[in-house]
Amino acid sequence: MASFFHGHPQAGHTRGSTSGPARWRPSTSPVQSTVVAALGQASVGVPALPASGRIAAGVLKSCQVARSRLAKATGPEPRATQTMDRQVSVWDARTFLARLCEQAERYDEMVTYMKEVAKLGGELTVDERNLLSVAYKNVVGTRRASWRIISSIEQKEESKGSDKHVSTIKEYRSKIETELEKVCEDVLNVLDESLIPNAASGESKVFYHKMKGDYHRYLAEFASGEKRKGAATAAHEAYKNATDVAQTDLTPTHPIRLGLALNFSVFYYEILNSPDRACHLAKQAFDDAIAELDSLSEESYRDSTLIMQLLRDNLTLWTSSDNAEAEGAGAADAPKKEEGEAADKPTEEAKAEEPAPESTN
């Protein structure tokens, strides 16, 4: 499983010559100085320590893309150029801070910064898109893991007949569900208001509609009654929209198309309780990818083969569960894998699902 946490940036230091006691002073490269200047223009306060050149270079790459996008939108007029510079400065600063948050594993703040970038308009780069996805995936992932653990404890206490404990557990589970609902509604609003309307490429459209399906699915995991039905319907519609675009714009070996098939099949199995449709979808995606392995690009080889492995693992799991049921054992008795999310911990009740994308710092 891919690693989703990156090493903390290391700042180089040089000995500063002063008339008083010797002090450590952070060294700065021209690239870092440019980034710090951009942050200053946006009036964003950051620690005095410089970022690593690796992060800074990524920010500058985003700067160039942002300037190009905004230049097309605003034109060369002096006043428009000033507006463009201010927007680019904000764009650069927020992306830079999101990278810092990722390194520090402060994902709630990372969400805040990337949400601001999304609301500035324009289509996000692949790296910016992944930053936003990683941020939300970790924020929601910790809460989904907590919900599973608490739900499992609740079931055990109910079997013991411990009414007092069950009441307390239900109240705490409700608190987690409120947090989950808030996060999911937040990302769905960003998708509907900013990301999907600005998506121009087929790849972006598939990515965002799949993401929309994922977060409606997360809502359906803990909802009940009409709420669950509404979330399931919305998830199915989003996955279907993503699939329609993927089948025309992306190759069968494209990691985003494979990830869509993986999560859509999990939706059929877990939310709609349709193992036959889940297995059919997963097998079709796997077979289509195998048939076109020659078209697999070197840059996406690792991601694509990882998701193909998860598709195969799920097929093995689901078919063995069906066999166990036929022999009198419950499907829940079958060994299950935890999804490949950075923030989730293994549980016995989980399934393999697409990993969170890695941002390239």
From TrEMBL:
Gene3D superfamilies: 14-3-3 domain. Residues 334-354 have a biased composition (Basic and acidic residues). Residues 92-332 form the 14-3-3 domain. Residues 15-29 have a biased composition (Polar residues). Residues 1-29, 322-361 are annotated as: Disordered. It comes from the Eukaryota. Coiled coil: none annotated. Pfam families: 14-3-3. Belongs to the 14-3-3 family. This is 14-3-3 domain-containing protein. It comes from Metarhizium humberi.
